[in-house]
Amino acid sequence: MVFRALVTDRDEEGLTRSTVQWVPDEKMPAGDVLVAIEWSGLNYKDALCLAGQGRLVREYPHIAGIDFAGRVVDSSDDRYRPGQAVALTGWHVGERRWGGFATRARVAGDWLVPLPKRLAPREAMVLGTAGFSAMLAINRLKDAGITMHSGDVVVTGAGGGVGSMAVMLLARLGYNVVAVSGRPELYDEIKRLGAHRIIGREEMLVESGKPLDSSQWSAAIDSVGGPLLGQVLKKIKPGGVVAAVGNAGGMDWQGSVAPFILRGLSLFGINSVDQPYDVRVEAWERLASLYLPTVYGPLVREAVLGELEDLAALTLSGGVGGRVVVNPRDDTR
Questions:
Q1: Rounded to 5 degrees, what angle do the CA atoms 32, 36, 38 make?
Q2: What is the pLDDT of residues 75-117, one digit of tens each?
Q3: Cα dist. 245→32, 69, 92 in Å?
Q4: Contact status, residue 23 vs residue 3, Cβ threshold 8 Å
Q5: Structural domain containing residue 142
Q6: Residues 153 and 250 in one domain
Q7: Do residues 184 and 56 both lie within one domain?
Q8: CB 183 within 8 A of CB 159
Q9: For residues 1 and 108, what is the distance between their CA atoms, to the nearest angstrom?
Q10: Handedness of CA 222, 181, 91, 250 (dihedral sign)
C-alpha cells in the first residue's frame, strides 16, 4: 500500500523543496501504532522544517508535521484499538522523525494520547501543539499559586497560535487577560477571545533604560521570547510568575537579575515535547472542557498539503494569525 504525504527534500546546494507524493508503506519508520491521519496543524516549527531552517531536520527526505490527530488502524499497544481517536504532539515527530503531513503515520504508542470524547480530530488540531503548550503554561501558573484573584495576566504573541490559545483559555478560567500583539488587524478577534486590554508590540518594546519598570501584572505567558520577554520580566509584580513558551522573537534578551532578587520573580520554561503520558492526558482533558469552537473559529484556517510551503513562508514572516489546520486527505486544491 501507499500513503499520500508532503515530502521535503534537500538538494546538493542545501535548498529545500516540498512536493506531494505517494509513499510506499514500507518506508514508514517502525512503531507500535498505525494511525490514519485526519488532521494536522501548521506550527512555527513546521514552517522552519519546510524552509530548511533551525537545523531541526536531521535526515532527508523528510515528512514534517509536529502534531496530528486521527484514528487507529492497527496497534500492538494494548492501550489503543482500531477506530479509536488519538492525537500526537511532541517527541520530535515532524523534526527528527516523520510527522503528520501525511495520510498515515506509524509511531510509538507512548507518544499518543486517546482523544477525550468531546473532541473530534479536527477540533483536536485546532488546539494542537499550541493549545497543549498554552495549557501546560496555565497549569504552571496555577501550580505557582496564580489565581484569577492574583491580578492581571499578560500574554505576548496574542495573535499567534500559543498566544491566542492562552488568551482564550485564561479568559475561560476567569482571569483578567492583557494581550500583547503586533497584529492590529487581529485586535477585534483577540478581544473576542477574552482579552480586556491589548498593548501594541512596539509600545511594549520601548526601553526605559532601567533594570525594573513599574509593576503591572501578576503573571505572564510569553510565547515570543527575545527582547519582548526582557520587557515583560521588568514589569511583573513582586512574587509574580512568567511562563516562557516560545522563541519566535529570538533566543536572547538584555536584562538583569533585578526582577528575580528584588521582586522574587519566578521564570519557568514550558517544554511541550516530552511530557509524561499522565500529564498529557490530563492537559487534553482540561483542554476539552475549556475549548469553545464558536469563539475560536474565526481564527482557524484550513489548508491542504500542496499549500503548506507557501503558508510556511508566510508563517515565518509573521503573516499568519491563529491556527492553520491541515487536511492531508484533500487533494482538490
A1: 135
A2: 999 999 999 999 999 999 999 999 999 999 999 999 999 999 9
A3: 30, 22, 16
A4: yes
A5: 129-269
A6: yes
A7: no
A8: yes
A9: 21
A10: negative
- CATH label of the domain that carries residue 173: 3.40.50.720
pLDDT digits (tens, 9 = 90+) for 166-200: 999 999 999 999 999 999 999 999 999 999 999 99
Cα–Cα dist 231/87, whole Å: 36
For 55, the 3-state DSSP assignment is coil
Give pLDDT, residue 248. Answer: 83
Residue 27 lies in a domain: yes
Low-confidence ranges of the chain (pLDDT < 50): none
d(CA 128, CA 130): 5
Contact of 241 with 139, CB cutoff 8 Å: no
Instruction: Give me the phi and psi of 260, to 5 degrees please.
Output: -85, -40
φ, ψ for residue 52, nearest 5 deg = 70, 30
Instruction: Please check whether residues 230 and 137 belong to one and the same domain.
Output: yes
The grid coordinates of residue 5 equal 504525504
Residue 238 is assigned to a structural domain of this protein: yes
Instruction: Please name the residue that has the C-alpha cell 514508514.
Output: 28
